[in-house]
Design brief:
The complex is a heterodimer of chains A (111) and B (115). Chain A has 111 residues and is mostly beta strands. Chain A has strands spanning 9-13, 18-23, 31-38, 45-50, 55-56, 61-64, 70-75, 84-92, 105-110. Chain A is built from no helices and 9 strands. Classes of the chains: A mainly beta (111), B mainly beta (115). Chain A binds chain B through residues 2, 32, 34, 41-46, 49, 87, 93-104, and chain B through 4, 31, 33, 35, 40-45, 48, 56, 58-59, 91, 93, 98-109.
Chain lengths: 111, 115
């Protein structure tokens, strides 16, 4: 079973920030949080990962709560091309070849 | 540069036939992964290669499934005596080193339909 819980779907207006929550209440101290997304009919695409600190890259920001039991992926200025299924995954770095994927959040960006 | 490629993109086969799915990883990537994805579901891990060896085959669902990798590059996933429940999208990914890599690079997948 996936170690994370995500809402099945969310909407966001184009140009606004999209905030995608993820609950991982059973995360252990050396498990990372990963985010991938899958645009329709394509393979998944890596977005970002983090351990304890908040992280930012050119695609998104990852905010991890202090107790590490939940996180939020932020797409700062959502575009129509960001419509996709977003997956939150937790895994040890040395077993990350066997990522366990849940059903993800279907994010729909509306014009 | 070239990404991960998979062939065929679509495969329709009759129940009981054998199928071979091919994956060409990114050049120089030593780690290669196979997953499958049923409609509306997340990905299910099948097997992981480090070079030509498969340290973890635990995800293969039955002995009808096998995979090999040659020359540290191309990999083939073979399904023997296909069943309707094998219908899914089969995804391949690669990464530079394997464990310790945060990012896996995925191909577009092969959609397998067993009739």
């Amino acid at each position: 079973d996936a170690k994370t819980t995500q809402p099945p779907s969310m909407d966001c207006a184009e140009g606004r920030a999209a905030n995608l929550p993820c609950n991982h209440s059973t995360i252990s101290g050396n498990e990372y949080v990963y985010w991938y997304r899958q645009i329709h009919s394509q393979g998944p695409q890596y977005i970002i990962h983090g351990l304890k600190n908040n992280e930012t890259n050119e695609m998104a920001s990852l905010i991890i709560t202090e107790d590490r039991k939940s996180s939020t992926l932020i797409l700062p200025h959502a575009t129509l091309r960001d419509t996709a299924v977003y997956y939150c995954i937790v895994s040890f770095i040395y077993s990350n070849y066997q990522l366990i994927w849940g059903a993800g959040t279907k994010l729909i960006i509306k014009p | 540069g070239a990404g991960v490629s998979q062939s065929p993109s679509n495969k329709v086969t009759e129940k009981g036939k054998d199928v071979e799915l091919r994956c060409d990883p990114i050049s120089g990537h030593t780690a290669l992964y196979w997953y499958r994805q049923s409609l509306g579901q997340g990905l299910e891990f099948l097997i992981y290669f480090q070079g030509n060896s498969a340290p973890d085959k635990s995800g293969l669902p039955s002995d009808r499934f096998s995979a090999e990798r040659t020359g540290g590059s191309v990999s083939t996933l073979t399904i023997q005596r296909t069943q309707q429940e094998d219908s899914a999208v089969y995804l391949c990914a690669s990464s530079p080193s394997g464990t310790g890599d945060f990012e896996q690079y995925f191909g577009p997948g092969t959609r397998l339909t067993v009739t």
